[in-house]
Amino acid sequence: MSDEEQRSEVTATETPVVEQPPPSQAAAALRDAVDDDTTDASAQPEPAHQHDVAHHEAAHQGDHHAGGDHAHGADHFAHILPMPLLVGVAGALIVLTVLTVGVTAVDLGSQGNFIVAMIIATIKAALVMGIFMHMVWDSKFNVVAFTSSFLFVLLFLSMAVLDRAEYRPGIDQFETDMKIKASK
Amino acid sequence: MSDSDHDHSHAGHGHGEAVYPYTPHHFHAAKQHFESGKMGVWLFLVTEILFFAGLFCAYTVYRARHPEVFYWAHFYLDTTLGAANTVVLILSSFTAAWAVRNAQMGDKTKLRINILLTIAGALFFMCVKYVEYSHKFHDGLLPSRHFHPSEEVWETHAFKHKHPEAAAAAERIIALRTARMQAQGAVRDEVVPRDAALRAVPVSHHEEGAPAAAPPHFDKDELALDVPNDIWLESQIRALPPAVRKPLDMAGVIHKPADGPVEFARPAKAGVFFSIYFFMTGLHGLHVVIGIGLWIWMLVIASKRSMGDRYFGPIDFTALYWHLVDLIWIYLFPMLYLIH
């Protein structure tokens, strides 16, 4: 509740800044045009922002650029995470850390333990990326760009591992040679 | 709408200022200003992931080839300190995310408090790192040719705690072997020639001044001096019960090459683990230090400028970087500290 009040205060205090220089007719027209463009291009529904629009319109009473809903919507890009969500994610991350330490006491085989640890780490990473890094609400481009890096890492690692298997006889031979050399 | 309108508005320079005081005039709106910055940060984070990928690759390849080295090395790492650092980084990631919320709502006081808490978490992390690193330095657990561990794995507290019988058996074999070699006159001043029949005998680096533990006296039957060294060692190892032998096998202490006598020593190239360890944690630690610098900068910006729901980019971007540092640690922790 207090958050909402605070935010509306903020918007109210900022309003004069927006209104200070009376924007020229051309500038207003341009802004509307570009705002239309961006809204169309990003075309991403942001339901979490819907409740903000009312505040915004209330705060911007008398604003000169009569752009309609598009202009108002485009101005709101801050996605504020609710406190319970932040606390919940932090709590889940700590619980998962305790879990991943605890699971080492259980013998699942050398591979099994590593796989479980990596699965837990990936869940934690997904929580950090999705919520803390706002990725769930971020633009598709950023999400695709960032997650593609993981694909490239996977490609890199799998090629290296395949290569290692391929050259294993050569490496074994090299190590034997080095041993013989060292003992001479 | 037309091109001439576009030119006119830019020539006037009034547009950017009208949008928001911190939006440079070449952006048409605060939103565009924010989104171009954000895209840049995401692309930077992509390069960071690929940067760390080289080290993850080294880890994967070396662990696939030498699992015993990783099992051996994990006895030298303190899981409690690693877990403490994980929790601290998670908490500082939480305060960073909270700081973004404060910036978006224009709450200057809370914003500054959360930035300070984030810095405190980062400093705590670096203090724990300092404690860990100084222990490693002291114990000779250093990369490459500087690797001279002062304790063998069966002498470490973690190994003794987890496998007390295997540790006792290993110490007995080493004591017997030392006594045999002294009886044979093969050992002078603890220096073992590399090409001795029993190769890779660990050279103990006792602390200076501390008297070397006097080898216990074994009677002649126990020493079995008439048996050749390699056959004696093999018979000793064969006599171990499977449960006692297993951890020593897993840690690569007992090693039987296809073309030579059985070896009882620390695994060859064990030091490579510490090369990987120091490069991974070191590069991550460097990112934490850079993060501290960025957060101090953000503290200055947060104090000078008024943040709000249309100007919070700097805090958001620094938080993104900070979450990435957390993200990498989330993987490093199980990879290095939780080897089973």
Distance between the termini of chain B: 65 Å
Q: How much is the average pLDDT of chain B?
A: 83
| Total helical elements of chain B | 13
Q: What fold name stands as the CATH topology of the largest domain in chain B?
A: Four Helix Bundle (Hemerythrin (Met), subunit A)
Strand order of the largest sheet of chain B: 1-2
The appropriate CATH architecture of the largest domain in chain B is Up-down Bundle
Mean pLDDT of chain A: 71
- Give the biggest beta sheet of chain B: 2 strands, antiparallel
So how many helices of chain A? 8
Biggest interface goes to: A-B, 82 and 78 residues
In summary, what is this structure?
Chain A has 184 residues and is an all-alpha fold. Helices cover 76% and strands 0% of the residues of chain A. In chain A, helix 2 packs across helix 4 and helix 5 runs antiparallel to helix 6.
Explained architecture:
The complex is a heterodimer of chains A (about 180) and B (about 350). In chain A, about 75% of the residues lie in helices and about 0% in strands. Chain A has about 180 residues and is mainly α. Chain A has two domains: about 1-75, no CATH class; about 85-185, no CATH class. In chain A, helix 5 packs antiparallel against helix 6 (about 110-130). The longest helix of chain A has 27 residues, at about 140-165. Chain A is elongated and about 75 Å long. Chain B has helices spanning about 5-10, 15-20, 30-65, 65-75, 80-105, 110-140, 155-160, 165-185, 220-225, 230-240, 240-250, 270-305, 315-335; strands spanning about 255, 265. Chain B has a two-stranded antiparallel sheet with strand order 1-2. Classes of the chains: A mainly alpha (about 180), B mainly alpha (about 350). At the A-B interface, helix 1, helix 2, helix 5, helix 6 and helix 7 of A face helix 1, helix 2, helix 3, helix 5 and helix 13 of B.
